[in-house]
Amino acid sequence: MIKNDQSARAEQQESTEAELQGIAGKRAIVTGGATGIGLAIAQALADAGARVAVADLNEAGAAEAARQIGNGAIGVAIDVRQRASVEQAFAAVASAFGGYDILCANAGVSTMNLVVDLSDEEWDLNFDVNARGVFLTNQIAVRHFLKTGTKGIIVNTASLAAKSGAPWLAHYSASKFAVMGFTQGLAREVAAQGIRVNCVCPGFVKTGMQSREVQWEAKLRGMSPEAVIDEYVTLTPLGRLEEPEDVAKAVLFLASDLSGFITGEALNVTGGVRMD
């Protein structure tokens, strides 16, 4: 009986905390939500009581992620580079949930190369997904918020590379600088309507994307992948690689009422790699 009472109190405390955060009962869209940081964000929002739409280019992956998350999550196919695809996906979410309150524009890609060797295709891919994708998803979400009178919340995923240009990632950095600037500009435009727009800037996050980047960087620098990872850890004052869940916790904060007077920010989530 004591154990049951303790469990009940713990569940009640979790429920109360979720209510205080203002996440419980909200409806959220997470792009790029099938894997990595996006999946961690979707799970964190669902755990806090939100209904989550996992939106991803990989439709089967989105459906499987939603199944794993539970709590009424759904999966939807989306190509953030294409306006028609974003409109269709967001309309499907609005139909399923009766609207939406939170957008986490997380979908992103990277390639790595010296600028002198960079192809037009690499440049275009990074800007189409990372910058155009944020523009399209944010614009369509804001139109929905304004039409429905929703004081919506947007959290975009930028990068440590949005704060400082990164070698071998100049094109990626440029696309993420664009995300940060767009976030600030949009935040100023919609503040009067009670819509908040922020972004997070993750550092060296342990994801499939990082695994690919480590291989590319090792080849470009003539060093081992293990040495590249060791350097990442050395550069991080908190002394470890970042986990997707570290980013998700910051996004949860920015999506909650706890950050109700914060907008236009680019929040470093880097373990101390970047401190300004």
- Give a count of the beta strands, DSSP E runs of length 2 or more: 7
Which class of secondary structure composition applies to the elements?
A: alpha/beta
Instruction: Label the overall shape.
Output: globular
List segments where confidence is low: pLDDT < 50 over at least 5 consecutive residues. none
Order of helices and strands: HEHEHEHEHEHEHHHE
- CATH topology title: Rossmann fold
CA-based gyration radius: 19 Å
Provide the β-strand percentage band: 5-15%
Give the distance, in angstroms, between the N- and C-terminal Cα atoms. 51 Å
Q: Give helix % range.
A: 40-55%
Q: What does the main sheet amount to?
A: 7 strands, parallel
Number of domains: 1
Assign the CATH architecture: 3-Layer(aba) Sandwich
Kindly state the mean pLDDT as a whole number?
94
Give the CATH level 1 class.
Alpha Beta
Identify the strand order in the major beta sheet: 3-2-1-4-5-6-7
Q: Give the name of the CATH superfamily.
A: NAD(P)-binding Rossmann-like Domain
Number of helices: 9
Topology summary:
Layout: H1 2-21, E1 27-31, H2 36-47, E2 51-56, H3 59-69, E3 74-77, H4 83-97, E4 102-105, H5 120-148, E5 153-157, H6 170-190, E6 196-202, H7 208-221, H8 225-235, H9 244-255, E7 266-269
Parallel strand pairs: 1-2, 1-4, 2-3, 4-5, 5-6, 6-7
Outline of the structure:
The chain is of the alpha/beta class.
